[in-house]
Design brief:
Layout lengths: L20 E5 L8 E6 L39 H51 L8 H35 L8 H27 L21 H9 L6 H15 L20 H13 L4 H9 L13 H6 L12 E2 L2 H11 L38 H5 L17 H9 L1 H17 L8 H12 L6 H11 L8 H16 L2 H4 E2 L1
Helix pairs in contact: 1-2, 2-3, 5-6, 5-7, 12-15, 13-14, 13-15
């Protein structure tokens, strides 16, 4: 009777234990008792440690004092039976957790397959929509893409429900004495509730006919008309009334060719920056750049064919040097310093070991001293492993600073080119190659080896003083040397030439 309830009352602070409830009516004609109602409080309707309120109409009386509650328990009072019940509960939840783990993994696999099918369907719909695939029914493909996309969303939501359910079961397998058990159970229950809501939402979207033709495109989508803001910005930057962009560009190009910019503060052309050394030249190049249609190739050709670029870098006239030691008037070419990438590549090139393969995956800097790919293919990032050991000493590029390379001359550079394992390996390779290229009857003359080494490494012949110094270094002592010692001397000479200023400088 909905108006007549079964109530259990107990004094405050007292626990009442009820195993089962049976309500019997008048006996039948054969004398058997007539069971009107029965409550056994057993699974699966009544789960272990679950609040009784809400199951089969049971509820907490509104007249009870605060704190009154109920809970389903398989054992009470007897320590042995309580411990056994706890052990059984943990075992059951452990089994359930493993079953849920397997179910969650299978659900994730099904979700991934559904996601792949959805992507393929959306891609087909996109190709039909944008005319890539001709004579295709774009509307039908759009409906299929939408259906596959919403099915994938349901599969993902189902996988999430199983995943968080498994997390809850894993938390419940912990003993009641675990301090983190309640916290982990609460967190997993909250995530499970959110996942169930997401599943309901995905299922409702799958059943909604209003969403049958709309689907998210595989690639980015853009509005059919542009606001014109980017074009306006580009026109303003390249306007003849705004020569700043052209000045900055030609200043960078000039820096790369002449090793010194017209405006030293390449990152700042404002009032706080440095004044140009040749303002008229800077303006003339900027106008030439704009009038050539912003052609960098034209500026490169203009600079490299100029008389200023073709001048020698040696001082020569001491009078001019005394009046203009910083070469502000460009009466000679500035001496440059080989960049870090070119240093390593040049060492490999002269030894005949440089790998000219183009493209490919970015390489780790830890391999730069043992592999022979061009240096530009090794990673460059701000982290500690963003530079290889050799390039880091020769002013490697800074990923966070793209304006200008630093240029330094420090003792560690000479030590690296003397003691580096890569340099030792390449010097041995080059010395052996040059020695074997000489005819056997000419190998006794050290001058031929010296000449070959200078031409291969420095691209010039040695001076008389250099020839004498190198010959003295290669000369065997009075008691003679064996072939191994002679080879080490030739390797040492090659290593010294790799450390020569003419090898590292650009003149």
């Amino acid at each position: 009777d909905a108006k007549q309830g079964i109530s259990f009352d107990a004094r405050t602070g007292v626990v009442a234990v009820i195993d089962s409830v049976r309500i019997l009516g008048p006996g039948s004609a054969d004398g058997q008792a007539n069971c009107l109602a029965q409550f056994t409080f057993e699974p699966p309707a009544y789960a272990e440690q679950q609040e009784l309120a809400g199951i089969e109409g049971w509820e907490i009386s509104p007249f009870s004092q605060a704190g009154a509650t109920s809970v389903v328990a398989s054992a009470f009072g007897d320590g042995a039976s309580t411990a056994a019940a706890e052990k059984r509960r943990l075992a059951q939840r452990a089994v359930a957790a493993q079953e849920l783990r397997l179910a969650a993994a299978e659900a994730k696999l099904a979700a991934a397959a559904a996601e792949l099918a959805g992507i393929e369907a959306r891609a087909a719909a996109d190709r039909a929509k944008w005319g890539v695939k001709l004579n295709a029914d774009s509307d039908a493909l759009a409906r299929i893409a939408n259906q596959r996309h919403r099915e994938a969303a349901v599969k993902h939501a189902e996988a999430d429900v199983l995943t968080y359910n498994q997390a809850l079961a894993a938390a419940e397998t912990k003993p009641s004495s675990d301090a983190n058990r309640a916290k982990e159970m609460a967190a997993a229950a909250q995530q499970l509730a959110a996942a169930r809501q997401a599943l309901q939402k995905a299922q409702a979207a799958l059943a909604d006919p209003a969403l049958a033709t709309s689907y998210p495109s595989v690639g980015p989508t853009y509005p059919p008309t542009s606001t014109g803001r980017r074009r306006a910005l580009a026109l303003w930057i390249t306007s003849r009334d705004n020569p700043l962009a052209a000045r900055v560009a030609v200043n960078h190009i000039w820096l790369r060719h002449f090793h010194s910019p017209l405006v030293s503060s390449v990152f700042d052309f404002g009032r706080n920056g440095a004044r140009p050394t040749h303002p008229e030249l800077l303006d003339w190049l900027a106008v030439e750049f704009m009038e050539s249609g912003w052609s960098m190739k034209h500026i490169h050709r203009l600079l490299t064919t100029s008389q200023a670029y073709r001048r020698v870098s040696s001082i020569g006239d001491a009078t001019r040097y005394a009046s203009d030691p910083e070469n502000k008037l460009l009466w000679r070419m500035n001496t440059g310093r080989m960049e870090a990438e070119a240093v390593r590549d040049s060492v490999l090139y002269v030894a005949g070991k440089l790998d000219f393969a183009m493209g490919g995956q970015e390489l780790e800097n830890s391999e730069a001293l043992t592999t022979f790919r061009r240096t530009l293919y090794y990673s460059c990032q701000p982290e500690i492993d963003g530079k290889n050991p050799l390039s880091a000493l020769f002013d490697a590029p800074e990923p966070a600073d793209c304006y200008r390379r630093t240029r330094s001359v420090v003792p560690q550079q000479a030590l690296a080119l003397t003691n580096s394992d890569l340099v030792h390996e390449m010097s041995g390779q080059l010395a052996g190659t040059l020695w074997r290229q000489l005819p056997s009857e000419q190998q006794a003359d050290p001058q031929l080896f010296i000449m070959a080494a200078f031409e291969q490494i420095l691209a010039r012949a040695p001076s008389a003083a250099e020839s004498r110094a190198c010959a003295a270094f290669l000369k065997a002592p009075a008691n003679g040397v064996n072939a191994q010692d002679a080879a080490r001397r030739r390797e040492g000479l090659v290593r010294a030439l790799l450390n020569h200023n003419d090898f590292l400088s650009i003149r």
